Amino acid sequence: MNKHAKTIAKNAAVVAGATLVSRILGFVRDIIVAFALGAGLFADAFFVAFRIPNLLRRLFGEGSLTMAFIPVYSRTLEEEGEEAAQAMARSAMIWLAGILIAITVVVEVLARPLTMVIAPGFIDNAEQFQVTIDLVRICFPYVVFICGVALCMGILNSRGHFLAPALAPVALNVALIGSALFGYLMGYNVAYCMAYGVLVGGAAQWFMQQPFLKKAGFSWRGQWAWRNKGVARMGMLMLPTVFGAAVYQLNILLGTLLASFLPVGSVSYLYYADRLVQFPLGVFGIAVSTAALPSLAKLAARNEMEEYDKALSLSLGLTLFIALPAAAGLIGLAEPVISLLFQRGAFTAEAVTATSQALVAYAVGLPFIALSRPLVAGFYALEDTRTPVKIAVACLVANVGLGVWLMQSMAHVGLALAVSLSSLLNFALLHIFLTRKREARLLPAGSAVKTAVLSILIGWGAYMTGGWTPWCLLLIPVWVVVYIGMAFVLRLNEARLFADMIKARVRRGKLPKGM
Predict the structure, then answer these.
(1) What gap in Å lies between CA 338 and CA 416, rounded to an integer?
(2) pTM for this predicted structure
(3) How far apart are alpha carbons 461 and 381 in whole angstroms?
(4) What's the Rg (C-alpha) of the chain?
(5) Among 111, 114, 103, 19, residue whose Cα is nearest residue 61
(6) Residue 504: pLDDT band by 50, 70, 90 thresholds?
(7) Residues 154, 162: Cα–Cα separation, whole Å
(8) Cβ atoms within 10 A of the Cβ of 103, count?
(9) pLDDT digits over 296-309, tens only?
(10) Where would you tag: which of 46, 141, 261, 446 has the fewest CB atoms within 10 A of its CB?
């Protein structure tokens, strides 16, 4: 089996495990924040204030910055050596810090008009408006830390370390939980405490990366330059990725806008259903693409394109091996899962039915959303960031058009189905263009067919036991074992890779060597 594929799978396991911890802790954070902060003037002010740096994080941090940095850093390391690569990383950090600090100063000065733009409804309430301005000024410097963390993530991932960057969100969740409880127990204003908690969390995420950078042999002390060709190349690659992130955010906004024209409750049905679909996507979909990019970038930099094709192919196979049964399980168990999680209080049986219908429609597209991530990583590894963005714009138009058409007859379910169909289109276009670019078959057809058949059987079995609510959910581990066992019988490479990865972690009781 391809050694790069094994490396990607092991690294994906690390990222998935850390992301799972972060997601669970995020759920705990939401419960505690709801308890301590509640819903009211100060809660609304905090969530609006935190939304601004969070939006910039999504546009300029994590995805965009890291995906533009890793290919350039890997190529510099391969072609010019360690010293040049470190100088490029330092130069990128100096530029990043300079730009973000300048933006932060502008926001601190113009916090009042900025708040008028993002929360015009608060202007009529003088107290709420002033509190929001204060919280904007406290929260905004978080962008300096989190974008710095994204660059650290790029350095560490390029050097084969994935744990510390993947655990970074845990530090923010701990800081927000701690600050909320501190404010509540000490009698301070919880919103202001949480705003400072955002800063503490950002700083904690930054300092959390530093020991691992040092251990990996990287130092912030050394040569750097304002005019660094690697940084210039990185900046050119970032422009399309930032635009792509903006397209994604616009997609969410337009979906909510269309849902607002439907009967009351439609927005909520879509929100709750989407949260369930995002869980396997966030844990596994992101994990494989995050782990794949550094390996693919190194292979592209070395011009080992045959190995690149093999590694990308197995990344797609592994993604499908996880995403297809997850989608089948969500479809088969949609109603009992929604019922168990949400049916209480104001969430009626009618709401359960409506939400489960949306979940089924969303789950249809889950495999295509998951498969698109390694494909995008494949483009970025080749330093082609324009093609995925052009495709994303085309799919945005398709999503809106399909949404407007399908909502006429299917209401909110039509909007969810439009997302799935546009995701299918996105995957198909990405796969076609990258296949043509590489002149190679990337998606393993044999594995895809076998995985699809097994997933359909598992989904059907889950559906047939769905009437045992809520006991049918206790059978989920059984279905997982049955699925993996049947995959071994059919001799799926992805099953063996998945099992070897789990056994290695259990046997050693620690992370795989080199992580």
Answers:
(1) 16
(2) 0.79
(3) 40
(4) 23
(5) 103
(6) very low
(7) 10
(8) 15
(9) 888 888 888 888 88
(10) 261
